[in-house]
Specification:
Length: 61
């Protein structure tokens, strides 16, 4: 029974934010898109920095 409760809680935690995003409830959709756009840039910057450090580390060896 605990597994089913965990699954139901997980589904609720997924569907409620998605619904709020789609309907743009209280501006959450706009805020989510801004956060994602900024997050994509930071992921690309950090991936490039990590690749650079790994490449420099491999040059030393």
């Amino acid at each position: 029974m605990n597994k089913f409760i965990g699954i139901l809680i997980g589904l609720a935690l997924l569907t409620v934010p998605i619904y709020a995003w789609i309907t743009n409830f209280a501006g959450f959709g706009t805020a989510a898109m801004s956060f994602l756009k900024g997050g994509i840039i930071w992921v690309l910057i950090l991936t490039g920095a990590i690749s650079l450090v790994i490449g420099l580390s491999n040059l030393r060896e």
